[in-house]
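Researcher: Good morning. I'm working through a list of sequences from a screen, and I'd like to move beyond sequence-only analysis. For each chain I'm collecting a predicted structure so we can compare shapes side by side. This is the next one on the list. No need for commentary yet; just the structure.
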Amino acid sequence: MSDASITLNHIPLARIRVGQFKYPGNDEGLQAVHVHDYINFSNVTDQLMLERFLDEDGTRPGDANEPNGSVGAFRDIGVQVFDWFNWAGWEHSYATMIGNGNGLNRTDNNSEKDYYAYWS
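Model: Good morning. Structure tokens for this chain:
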């Protein structure tokens, strides 16, 4: 399972989503895999945006430095406020989120939260 969430739509211009879902981030991560132009993500997306946690930093000789958990898959567990509106002849969408910062199938491994923001 990669997504499980509930969205509440009771406040004008502020939909509230709670659960595990894609976090607001770069456009490449928000697209479905089957519509990508290329087989792999760009280097920026793969190395900076798609978090993958490793056992060590890779400096110890002979260390395989393998991932220690599931892939992030541009998902997080948390609370998001989002919506869209028209203003000055343009359509705007926004999203803000507070999440655990640990991707798929992982609990919060520290007391720190990740904060996300998106405007389009």
